[in-house]
Design goal:
A hairpin with a 5-residue loop joins β11 and β12. This protein is α/β, with parallel strands linked by helices. The protein binds 4-nitrophenyl 6-deoxy-alpha-L-galactopyranoside.
Length: 434
């Protein structure tokens, strides 16, 4: 909070996020009662569904095919290194056995602590685990916007916030976060969502919440939405972040044009969260799935700008990840298996973006992601005299570095890895032009 804490808190943030930023690729899982109406996770708000009319989904909820071990295998096979599950979304339904509410999965027909099973299964596959927790709560009677059993939800505008009542909600919210941080072992990520209007920062009693969080799980990393939303915001973008500004920025459905930097132009940790179709929660009518090729390109784009990609799946009411998502993830995984070295532990190359694709880099290894169909050899602009050898990353085969400036090739979407750029002796375009 204070000016003097800025530098050391940024150092601590750098330290905490180091492993996270090496991982680069994670799975977001939006799952809850809204999988039954299957019209997205905002359905209760968008359609102004009363608590009364939303209640049947609670009574019916019974995801018999929920098998988080399968989810974990899917994520791992896709090349993902971590996963974040919605422990509670805006509708207030808890996928964990909270002592502070009856509105939880253990009280439904399924009777299971879905969060606990998720955590155990993903950890068993060697993946890091995170929980999404909604700051908004359309079910809690003291959260502004609450609608009673017989009436549609009130609009924010129509509800005058009562500070005493809101404090009751905050006790509940803090209590649930404490439960998640106390009863479920080591968590790697806490993903709060989200701040809006005057409900931001200290309105959530954010300093208090963060002190609890850091004391219970010192290594956990936190997104920036105790202050911001999907469009950004908050002091994480300054050189003097607060204790609740978070460890990473969370641009939503966008990959920022030049990555994410603070006001001094310093790169800050960030993770773009992106849906596979056009919804977070399961939406039966939404068949607009991205192709594996698009996903790979978006992942490369994030890494080339020092960011992570948190790719979403929305399992259905039975507990299964949609077939279309599984197919895309399997294809992405096949690519990752052969080309993952150009993603994990990689970041910005410090070179201009080439016409034919993107560079990523890890130490003295430069990865050239050939994303355009090439006519003839590609031009390694900006690398004059610095490339020692070129290999196809997928199979290790030699690529011919041709004079004066090209690498010969190429299979479409092939990838080139370079070693020790400084040892390359061929003249390259910048030299040729002079
Ligand atoms: C939020 C949720 O509302 C959404 O359901 C999903 O969970 C997503 C990952 O996060 O979406 C937001 C949050 C904040 C903004 C926009 C969408 N915002 O501030 O612009």
């Amino acid at each position: 909070m204070s000016g003097s804490s800025g530098a050391s808190s940024i150092e601590q943030r750098t330290e905490r996020t180091r492993g996270f930023l090496r991982d680069r690729f994670g799975m977001f899982i939006h799952w809850g009662l809204y999988a039954i109406p299957a019209r997205g996770e905002w359905v209760r708000s968008v359609e102004r569904i009363s608590a009364w009319d939303y209640q049947p989904y609670f009574e019916e909820f019974n995801p018999e095919r929920y098998d988080p071990k399968e989810w974990a295998k899917t994520a791992k096979a896709a090349g993902m290194k971590y996963a974040v599950l919605t422990a509670k979304h805006h509708d207030g339904f808890c996928l964990f056995d909270s002592e502070l509410t009856d509105y939880k999965s253990t009280n439904t027909k399924c009777g299971r602590d879905l969060v606990r099973e998720f955590l155990e299964a993903f950890r068993a596959e060697g993946l890091k685990v995170g929980l999404y927790y909604s700051l908004l709560d359309w079910h809690h009677p003291d959260y502004p916007g609450y609608g009673d059993r017989h009436h549609p939800m009130r609009d924010d505008e129509a509800y005058k916030r009562d500070p005493a009542r809101f404090d009751v909600y905050l006790d509940y919210m803090h209590g649930q976060v404490r439960e998640l941080l106390t009863n479920y072992g080591k968590l790697d990520i806490m993903w709060f969502d989200f701040s809006y209007e005057e409900l931001t920062g200290e309105a959530w009693r954010a300093t208090e919440l963060m002190e609890t969080l850091r004391s219970l799980q010192p290594h956990i990393i936190v997104d920036n939405r105790l202050e911001g939303g999907g469009e950004g915001g908050g002091s994480i973008y300054t050189s003097d972040p607060t204790v609740y500004s978070g460890d990473f920025a969370s641009p939503e459905q966008i990959i920022p044009p030049s990555g994410v930097t603070d006001e001094d132009g310093q790169s800050i940790p960030w993770e773009a969260c992106i849906t596979l179709n056009n919804n977070w929660g399961y939406c039966a009518s939404d068949r607009a799935y991205k192709s594996a090729k698009t996903v790979i390109r978006k992942l490369v784009e994030c890494v080339s700008k020092n960011g992570n990609l948190l790719l979403n799946v929305g399992p259905d009411a039975k507990g299964e990840i949609p077939r279309e998502s599984l197919d895309v993830l399997a294809e992405v995984g096949e690519w990752m298996r052969r080309n993952g070295d150009s993603i994990y532990g990689c970041g910005e190359a410090g070179l201009p973006k080439p016409e034919w694709g993107r560079y990523t880099r890890s130490g003295d290894k430069l990865y050239a992601h050939l994303l355009e169909e090439s006519v003839g050899p590609i031009n390694l602009a900006g690398l004059a005299g610095r490339v020692k050898r070129a290999r196809l990353l997928a199979d290790g085969s030699e690529l011919i570095l041709s004079r004066p400036w090209n690498v010969g090739l190429f299979e479409k979407d092939a990838f080139v890895s370079f070693a020790k750029p400084e040892h390359f002796t061929y003249p390259l375009p910048d030299e040729r032009d002079t």
